[in-house]
């Protein structure tokens, strides 16, 4: 099974939300397993392997969310894992969290919106994460979307309010999710830990 | 930092609004010399290095667009630097600002009412300040609309204040129309097309 015959796309950097392409979930399931491909608005979108800083931050986020798993009985998954939003949208977010009341969405893949989606921005995907995916998650009732920018050392917390994301800000330096209260993060501490542990390579 | 050194935060990533408000107030700010330019945010001075030229190309292009909109509507559109006093501990200089006709403030040394629209163009050293710190400041001050422009990503984020918090507006069409300010609309592909045209004439730069 190969990817030959499929047409892959990149989103125009400043295009408005695209019209739907020709592909559906059925086409996506015929792809070989493990391809770094997402189905967004009926288009097959491919990503190169993430840079090392990206993966470092993903791992640290996953570690930080372990306490939420333990205290509240939810579960964290890291990419690659398919999240099926509808027939034209299947995404592989960097991290997802399903609170206890959403555990029945877990099958071979995740059916429907997780409690939290986190995308760690990298130069090649920042535009997609900030625009196409943001709108996609908003429309598909993802309750909470975090965008993490390792270069700028920011964590942005977006909370869904009837199909639109509202920017939430930490109180006294600590962000606590209103919807899923076990999700707590101190951005300053998070980046301090990242800086402390970050391997000093060429970058 | 010793007590005698003026506390100037130079392009340091500030991850969260500082828990405590710094020592400086409007009165201190007004006594400072004009140069170097700083902003006062939560009682601390923030200095910016000179912006990169892509930032300025975008700024000029946006200024031309904003000026045209302001002339049509009778509003006021200006490019930095203009002091906007939001609180006693916070004086900012947005990259671009716009007051609608009904809310045009008196012209004088500085503005003391929040603009209807503020636009910040991101610089590599400023992401955190614009996306986190100033976002909170503008929301608290009641700036109805805040746009963040990312030159590297060729992206606009349109934030609209609803009940004291910014909502990210979906970009559904090529032309963005402000929900509150009917005179404010921007054709995104045309805008970036103009920017690209200018970059192509610069032989030192690789066209994106």
Describe this structure in words.
The complex is a heterodimer of chains A (203) and B (208). Chain A has helices at 25-29, 52-72, 126-139, 187-197, and strands at 8-9, 37-40, 43-46, 75-78, 83-86, 89-91, 95-98, 110-111, 116-120, 144-149, 154-161, 164-168, 175-176, 184-185. By secondary structure, chain A is of the alpha+beta class. In chain A, the strands form four sheets. Chain A has a six-stranded mixed β-sheet with strand order 4-7-9-10-11-12, sandwiched between helices. In chain A, a hairpin with a 2-residue loop joins strand 2 and strand 3 (43-46). By secondary structure, chain B is an alpha+beta fold. Chain B has four helices and 13 strands. Chain B has helices at 26-31, 53-73, 127-141, 188-200, and strands at residues 8-10, 38-41, 44-47, 76-79, 84-87, 90-92, 96-99, 117-121, 145-150, 155-162, 165-168, 175-177, 185-187. In chain B, the strands form four sheets. Chain B has a six-stranded mixed β-sheet with strand order 4-7-8-9-10-11, sandwiched between helices. Chain B has a three-stranded mixed β-sheet with strand order 1-3-2, with helices on one face. In chain B, strands 5-6 form a two-stranded antiparallel ribbon. In chain B, helix 2 crosses helix 4 (188-200). Chain B starts with 7 loop residues before the first strand and ends in an 8-residue tail after the last helix. The chains are: A alpha+beta (203), B alpha+beta (208). The interface between A and B is medium-sized, with 35 and 35 residues.
Strand proportion of chain A: 25-35%
Order of helical and strand elements of chain A: EHEEHEEEEEEHEEEEEH
Question: Which assembly state applies to the chains in this document?
Answer: heterodimer
Helix-strand pattern of chain B = EHEEHEEEEEHEEEEEH
Q: In whole angstroms, how far apart are the ends of chain A?
A: 37 Å
- Fraction of residues in β-strands of chain B: 25-35%
Main beta-sheet annotation of chain B: 6 strands, mixed
Provide a count of the helices of chain A.
4
Q: Give the strand order of the largest sheet of chain A, numbering strands 1, 2, ... along the chain.
A: 4-7-9-10-11-12
Mean pLDDT of chain B: 85
**Total DSSP E strands of chain B:** 13
Global morphology of chain A: globular
The number of E-state strands of chain A comes to 14
What integer value in Å does the Rg of chain B equal? 17 Å
- How much helix is in the residues of chain B? 25-40%
Helix-strand category of chain A: alpha+beta
């Amino acid at each position: 099974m190969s990817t030959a015959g499929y047409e892959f796309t990149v989103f125009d950097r400043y295009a408005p939300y695209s019209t739907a392409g020709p592909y559906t979930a059925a086409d996506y399931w015929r792809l070989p397993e493990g391809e770094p491909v997402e189905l967004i608005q009926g288009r097959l979108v491919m990503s190169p392997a993430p840079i090392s800083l990206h993966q470092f931050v993903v791992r640290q986020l996953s570690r930080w969310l372990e306490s939420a798993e333990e205290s509240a009985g939810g579960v964290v998954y890291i990419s690659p894992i398919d999240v099926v939003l509808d027939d034209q949208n299947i995404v592989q977010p960097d991290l997802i969290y399903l609170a206890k009341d959403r555990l029945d969405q877990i099958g071979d893949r995740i059916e429907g919106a997780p409690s939290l989606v986190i995308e760690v921005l990298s130069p090649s995907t920042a535009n997609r994460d900030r625009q196409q995916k943001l709108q996609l998650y908003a429309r598909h009732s993802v309750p909470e979307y975090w965008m993490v920018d390792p270069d700028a050392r920011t964590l942005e917390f977006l909370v869904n309010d009837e199909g639109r994301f509202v920017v939430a800000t930490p109180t006294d330096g600590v962000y606590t999710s209103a919807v899923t209260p076990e999700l707590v993060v101190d951005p300053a501490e998070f980046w301090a830990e990242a800086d402390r542990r970050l391997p000093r390579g060429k970058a | 930092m010793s007590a005698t050194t003026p506390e100037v935060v130079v392009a340091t990533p500030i991850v969260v609004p500082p828990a405590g408000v710094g020592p400086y107030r409007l009165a201190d700010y007004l006594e400072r010399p004009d140069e170097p330019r700083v902003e006062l945010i939560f009682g601390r001075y923030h200095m910016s290095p000179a912006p990169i030229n892509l930032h300025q190309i975008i700024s000029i292009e946006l200024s031309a667009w904003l000026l045209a909109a302001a002339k049509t509507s009778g509003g006021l559109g200006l490019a930095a630097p203009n002091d906007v006093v939001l609180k006693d501990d916070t004086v900012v200089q947005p990259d671009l600002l716009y007051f609608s006709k009904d809310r045009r403030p008196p012209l004088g040394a500085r503005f003391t009412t929040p603009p209807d629209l503020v636009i910040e163009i991101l610089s590599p050293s400023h992401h955190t300040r614009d996306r986190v710190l100033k976002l909170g400041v503008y929301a608290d001050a009641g700036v109805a609309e805040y746009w963040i422009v990312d030159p590297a990503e060729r992206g606009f984020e349109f934030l609209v204040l609803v009940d004291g918090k910014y909502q990210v507006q979906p970009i559904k069409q090529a032309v963005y129309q402000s929900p509150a300010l009917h005179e404010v609309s921007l054709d995104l592909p045309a805008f970036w097309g103009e920017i690209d045209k200018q970059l192509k004439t610069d032989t030192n730069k690789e066209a994106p």
